[in-house]
Amino acid sequence: MTLLNKRQKSKLLLKKLTLPFLSFSQALLDKISINKLTLIGFTFVAMPLVMALLFSANKVSKLAKQSTSAIYHVAQLTQLNGKLVDTIAKIERSASQYLVLKDDELLTSFNRHHKTLNDIIEETLTSQQDPILIEQLSSLQIENKRIALLMLSDLTITLTLAQIQQEFKQLHLINHQLEKRSNLVVNEHVLAIHHTTEDISQHILARLYIIPVSLLIAGIFIILITNPLRRLTDKINLLEQGNFEQTINLHGPVEVIAIAEALENMRQRLHALELQKSSFIRHISHELKTPLAAIREGTELIYDKSVGPLNDDQQEICNIIRASVNRLQRLIEDLLDFNIVLDSTSLQRLEKISLPALLTDAFTVRKLDIKSKNLTIVCDNHACLLYSNSKQLSVILDNILSNAIKYSPIDGNITITYHTTNAHIIVKVIDQGPGIDPSLSEKVFDAFYQGKAPLNSQIKGSGLGLTIVKELLLRLNGSIKIIPAKEINTANKTGTCVILSLPNTPLDQ
């Protein structure tokens, strides 16, 4: 119990700490336009990427400079080794030949090669930075001067060829050490470039975390921008479905708030108009039904000859009156059904419905019409549950079934099937009537449109039935489509198939 209290206290404390921040964020967001929010989001997304790019460019630039410097030193050391080996060989050869031949030209050649070696060493010392190479070059220079002094002294008269070659051994040794050191320095430069390259690669790879960070920032700003628009779209969809009860009050960028305020004004006006329409239809329907009931009752008494026999002319007039009264009653019933379409509050009453039970009720209502034409109803009876508005769905099925009965031939069949998918419940009503011209498959949903009446129909429709069906399905997030029956079953040469699609998931209440 104590642990639970601690958790509750922690949650309350966290809520108190985050609430001011969320309130501040919401207040700040309400003052920013979508353009500014987009610009801020782009800046926050681009900034880390630009910083990473500048860092990488700086590192690559340093690597390029280091590589250039290393290549220059490697080339310089390579050329130096070749020059030193060649010049020392020439000096030794000139000195050996002079000792044997005692030719002054050979001594001059020796002096020239000696000076060349000295110049090479001097030039290298000025540009060289490795201390060991500098020391070895200095030793080589000293040894070169010592041999030169020896060759210019009187001791050359007594020196033998073997002795002079012995004097050059130290020069060769220093040159060999110099060559080894040069190779080592070259390897160090190559290794340094390799390490620098690996270091840059690691730094660049390490900064790849900037990509998910940038994507996260982009995602946050996308949510900040699209969430108000999505909520706005939801509100517009509610208005489209005729739901004028919910107040439209949104937070977000200033453009969204302005649109929400305009939609709220429109919602209030539409709601007021809807209430006026509903009130008018209810009132006029009630006022019409009262005298109509008296007219119908009187007509039936005359038709049944309760007040005396009728001649042929009187009987014909009575039939016309009776048919007109029935048609007027049908029009009033359609007006009442249409009033259900205008009644947005009824859409809120959603419940779990058994589709087979609803179909059975529809058949019961139309039992006399079905019997009068001796129609056979073929219907699925397997269990099927859905969340919907039973009152509106009953009106939909009654209108569809009424049309199927109206256009079916005597002794015909009406087939009703249904099945479920992941997202929808599909209901198909197939009759054997004359069918419908494909060019009129959409026009029949227009209010008060009346197609060609069937030959055996004595009552003319109001032209509101399919309009009511489509409007109610729109409010229930469903749809309707009319196609020739032969597209469903090639055995049917005529007939119409009405396909209803209803959502298979609970609707938002």
TrEMBL record:
GO terms for cellular component: membrane. It is an enzyme of class 2 (transferase). Residues 283-506 form the Histidine kinase domain. It holds the Pfam family HATPase_c. Residues 223-275 form the HAMP domain. The chain crosses the membrane at residues 39-57, 204-225. Its EC number is 2.7.13.3. It catalyses: ATP + protein L-histidine = ADP + protein N-phospho-L-histidine. It is found in: Membrane. Its main location: membrane. Keywords: Kinase, Membrane, Phosphoprotein, Transferase, Transmembrane, Transmembrane helix, Two-component regulatory system. CDD domains: HAMP (cd06225), HATPase (cd00075), HisKA (cd00082). GO terms for molecular function: phosphorelay sensor kinase activity. InterPro entries: HAMP_dom, HATPase_C_sf, HATPase_dom, His_kinase_dom, HisK_dim/P_dom, HisK_dim/P_sf, Sensor_HK_Regulatory, Sig_transdc_His_kin-like_C. PANTHER family: HISTIDINE KINASE 1, TWO-COMPONENT HISTIDINE KINASE. This is histidine kinase. The lineage of its organism: Bacteria, Pseudomonadati, Pseudomonadota, Gammaproteobacteria, Alteromonadales.
